Amino acid sequence: MRIQAVFVVLLLILSFGCEKEKGTSITSPPVVTADPPIPLYLNLGFSTDKACYIPGEEVILTIDKALLSATAKIRYKFLNEIVKEELITNATWKWIAPPTDFRGYIAEVFDSKDGIETIYATIGIDVSSSWKKFPRYGFLSKFPQLGDGEINAVISNLNRHHINGVQFYDWHNKHHKPLPGFADQASVWKDIFNRDIYFNTVQKYITASHKHNMKAMFYNLIYGAWNDAENEGVKKEWYVYTDVNHNSKDYHPLPSPPFLSNIYLLDPSNRAWQEYLQVENKKVYAALPFDGFHMDQLGDRGSRYKYDGSFLNLSQTFKPFIDAIKADEPQKDIVMNAVSQYGQTGIAQSAADFLYTEVWPPYDTYTDLAAIIKANSVYSNGTKNTVLAAYMNYNLADKKGFFNTPSVLMANAVIFAFGGSHLELGEHMLGKEYFPNDNLEMKEDLKKSLITYYDFLVSYQNLLRDGGSFNSVVLNSTDNKITVTSWPSANGAIAAVGKKVGSSQVIHLINFKDSQSQNWRDNAGVQTVPVEIKNAGLKLSSSAAVKKIWYASPDMIGGASRTLNHIQKGDQVTFTLPALQYWSMIVLEY
């Protein structure tokens, strides 16, 4: 009996212990094996010879080899998968772009010693036969007499940011006659602001752009005329009027001096006006090898009328104008500015090659930026990507000073994460809608960060800008280091943006935890640098088995990707987020 009693007690103890262990395994989070340490990042100078490459084209890469170890290597990756790896033996070398069209790659120069990796430099490589699939738009706005060195310095900087299309802003003479009849190598003319524009400078900029596989787009309004236009063949029946009796032409007033004329508006749907401008455009293309026409407008003008007194809905005239111009020069590219989205639905359904929005109120928040990009995708049935002309620190640009680095990086994090790109880089960074305004300069930290952000945009363009559908994801902390909420953004929170791309689940984390404002423009420049979060435990639900989780951020090790350890128990997947400052991207592969 005594032995039996002892045996019963032992069974009870063992049973109790098993129940306790079973309960603990349910309530305690699983422990994820620690990821390898974050590599040392040296951020050496690294460049490619072109902004993008056609499949099979030769890519020339150059690095500051003096600071490399003798065993340094280069690896080329497509979405975290290594496609080639080799030893670096020279400061400049060649790589043949893979045959698949419309892909982004990241090149990582690295070395490893005693299990610790050093990343010397990274760069994005865009292999795309056309810039219109993944447009990264820059600008030029000053065309005085310039030397080759000055021109090449500007274009080389745009090339390092992988800018693949350049808008030539206010390069022309009169809006209704963009190129003077006397234009030749020695010509100089006035723009509407009374600035000297040199033919030679425009031509050299186009040549330099083409050398780097950048497209050159000439800017002009689709319906602008100077006050002498009727003396040069423009008919009064073509104008837009503010009254039904055609007594008052619609015009955009400009102070004189310095401006040489007001801008009077023509009806874009008027076939005779279309034909007039087509003739003038042919003169432009005959004299200068532009690749296309960047079309501009002035936004909603209110109630307007044709010469015959009938109501004119300007927003509905854009599509027929675009289609007519494209049909006349089908080999040329076309993009049109939708000012605050005015007329964008028609533009998206036209022959325009991608979409472009100049962002004004009421689109003032980060959430609004995302909404524009998503709406444009809907308008075009997912066929056209978006460029936003969004002018940072707008009020600060009224006088000399500096851009606020956190303002720019936070806006770009949102724009890029949602699949857009940002028109902001030219001879300087944009702060105003008048592109020659260069009152604000970039600080060195912004210059360095922007290069990495554009590398990131290119490297992961197939996740960021190549289809997919946005979805909601729920992330929970396992260590109470962070709280993640689903988009839209809010001060004091980390916003999660989910997107399903093929068989992968992409999660963007954008850090608004320390944000001072949700106004992307940040007129007063008050946005602050987010405090970096490190090694935060996260858990999310997934009914499917996760094969791999990897991570990349433009704020860490040059955007290089890293595979993360994870544990999946049932439908719960646990992993560790290495770091988050402005923006980090997590990819789950199934």
Q: Could you characterize the architecture of this molecule?
A:
The chain is about 20% helix and about 30% strand. α2 (about 150-160) runs parallel beside α3 (about 200-210) and α8 packs parallel to α9. It is α/β, with parallel strands linked by helices and about 600 residues long. An eight-stranded parallel sheet has the order 9-10-13-17-20-21-22-24.
Structural topology:
Blueprint: H1 2-27, E1 40-41, E2 46-48, E3 58-63, E4 73-78, E5 81-87, E6 92-96, E7 103-113, E8 116-127, E9 137-140, H2 148-160, E10 165-168, E11 188-190, E12 196-198, H3 199-211, E13 215-221, E14 224-225, E15 251-252, E16 263-265, H4 271-287, E17 292-296, E18 304-305, E19 311-312, H5 318-328, E20 333-339, H6 344-348, E21 355-358, H7 366-379, E22 386-389, E23 401-402, H8 405-417, E24 421-422, E25 440-441, H9 444-459, H10 461-464, E26 469-471, E27 475-477, E28 484-486, E29 494-501, E30 504-511, E31 533-541, E32 548-552, E33 562-564, E34 566-569, E35 572-580, E36 583-589
Parallel strand pairs: 1-8, 9-10, 10-13, 13-17, 17-20, 20-21, 21-22, 22-24, 23-25, 28-29
Antiparallel strand pairs: 2-3, 3-6, 4-5, 4-7, 7-8, 11-12, 14-16, 15-16, 18-19, 26-29, 27-31, 29-30, 30-36, 31-35, 32-33, 32-36, 34-35
Helix pairs in contact: 2-3, 8-9
